[in-house]
Amino acid sequence: MENVYDVIILGAGPAGLAAGLYAGRSRMKALLIEKGQDGGQIAITEEIENYPGQIVDEEESGPSLIARMSKQVEKFGCERVSDTIDSVELEGDVKKLVGKKGEYCAKTVILATGAHSRPIGCKNEAQFVGKGISFCATCDANFFEDLEVYVVGGGDSAVEEAMYLTNYARKVTIIHRRDELRAAKSIQEKAFANDKLDFMWDSVVEEVGGDEGVLAKMWVRNVKTDEVTEIEADEDDGLFGLFGFIGFLPNTALFEGQIDMEKGYIVTDDDMRTNIPGVFAAGDLRKKSLRQVVTAAADGAIAATQAYKYVNE
Ligand code: NAP
Known about the structure:
Helices cover about 25% and strands about 25% of the residues. By secondary structure, the chain is an alpha/beta fold. Bound molecules: NADP nicotinamide-adenine-dinucleotide phosphate.
């Protein structure tokens, strides 16, 4: 079967890149498809200090880790294409992926499209995304140099990214819906010792606004007292920043109706097999208990190894 790959990997985050590495090393005819930049959420994460071998210092960040992973995939001969896939046909012996630039066929497919940030969920949110509201501190922190910034969430991401934002902003306030952080204790200790970091407990952002098309107002409700506080940008500043880090939603809409999912997450067995023979899933889009770079990479390695077995059996 000419022009039919042994394996197509969809998505070049840590899961897809690990799958590409293992597929390349096994000498499968492999293709890795990514629509944007490599790395997924890691490409926009400044500090990764819990991936084995990654020691955080000035040289090391999420993007530097991903750059090394991408280079390694290239070294072992996995083909690459930049394309956005619009539809997939996963049943049958030959799977078909249809993109904006072309059609791609393979005996096996590894789905590794990851997840995206959960929206804050307040009124008028969409209107101010990119105009004060952001979901990426690494990308947007410098826009808020010496301004006030608010961060929604209480997990590892919210607290770590809030600390990163204190390098730029005049003051950073974490708005959390409970009175206790979910973040790891080691991360919390650093946060509580940071003078530029403040907390609004038991609070949720209800609505955002601003007259000049930029974020300059918001209404925050205390969930225990129901009291609503109006927050306004300092007159000299004219705007403030609002960053959302309240978890992620899986990027699985493309596979809906074809593959078994639970709450949008793809269900697999321990070998990354989905309910469709020859279709595997790896990384954050999978139903599992721990979503980290290390587990995504492990998923990718297992998926590629199983794809190899499937092709050769
Ligand atoms: P997370 O652990 O799921 O935390 C989400 C936070 O957002 C929680 O504090 C949650 O509040 C809050 N939240 C959820 N929905 C909300 C809503 N609708 N309105 C307001 N607040 C809401 O997400 P994450 O921090 O992004 O982390 C995701 C995964 O990546 C976790 O496994 C985490 O450990 C990992 N991670 C690890 C590191 C690290 O180890 N260095 C860094 C980043 C992420 P409640 O606490 O009340 O539920």
